[in-house]
Amino acid sequence: MKIRNIMALIVTLSLFLGAPAFAKETVRYGFDEPRFTALYDDIVNWLGINTRYSIKEVGHPEMRFVDKEFLKNMICRDKGIETSECTLNVRAAYDKGVMWVGLGFDPMLVEEDKITFVHELVHHLQEQSPTKVSFACMQHIEHEAYKTELLYAKEFGLNDETNPIFVKLLSLPCRSPIDK
């Protein structure tokens, strides 16, 4: 009887507090799970062969699983867009060793999440690899990540809905220099 009461209390508190969305960005896990580690190793090894980046001594990024609205607002603020006017569909973001992903992100089971994982791992290598590459602007950083994700998707028979024309446009001369 006591276990039933304890479980009821846990469920009630979870519903009342709104967990896990209540926590906003405090849900942190990822590479402590063997399934993410194995997928990470497979993708990073592929990236080491198919990109110009050395993967030696590159550690795992920290993964933060956050509410999707929180993630969208974080990116919109970063881009100077009012959150009330922001219409971006953000699946993930990478910044300074941290991969931000929406709650429910599962690159093992969801094909689109796997492609997103590849894209964000390219950004991780761009930042963390001992091979340093300079870019003239942010769009060229994104061009490399999108181009690589398309190559990965093609090689492994995944359906990447990224428009190749969009990727080509990212390779055009920079509109503004990279912010340092």
Q: What can you tell me about this protein's structure?
A:
By secondary structure, this protein is mainly alpha-helical. It has one domain. It has helices spanning 2-17, 34-50, 68-78, 111-128, 138-155, 164-170, and strands at 62-66, 92-95, 98-102. Strands 1-3-2 form a three-stranded mixed sheet. A hairpin with a 2-residue loop joins strand 2 and strand 3. Helix 4 (111-128) crosses helix 5 and helix 5 packs antiparallel against helix 6 (164-170). The longest helix has 18 residues, at 111-128. It starts with a helix and ends in a 10-residue tail after the last helix. Mean pLDDT is 82; it is low at 3-26. This is DUF4157 domain-containing protein. It comes from Candidatus Lloydbacteria bacterium RIFCSPHIGHO2_01_FULL_49_22. Keywords: Signal. Residues 1-23 form the signal peptide.
Name the descriptors.
180 residues; mainly alpha; 3-stranded mixed beta sheet; 6 helices; 48% helix; 8% strand; globular; DUF4157 domain-containing protein; signal
Strand count, sense and barrel status of the largest sheet are: 3 strands, mixed
Number of helices: 6
Shape label: globular
Number of domains: 1
The helix content, as a percent range, equals 40-55%
> How does the helix and strand content classify structurally?
mainly alpha
Query: Could you give the order of the helices and strands?
Result: HHEHEEHHH
Report mean pLDDT, rounded to a whole number: 82
Report the count of strand segments. Answer: 3
Largest sheet, order of strands side by side?
Answer: 1-3-2
**Euclidean distance between termini CA atoms:** 60 Å
Rg from C-alpha positions? 19 Å
Poorly predicted residue ranges: 3-26
Report the β-strand fraction as a percent range. 5-15%
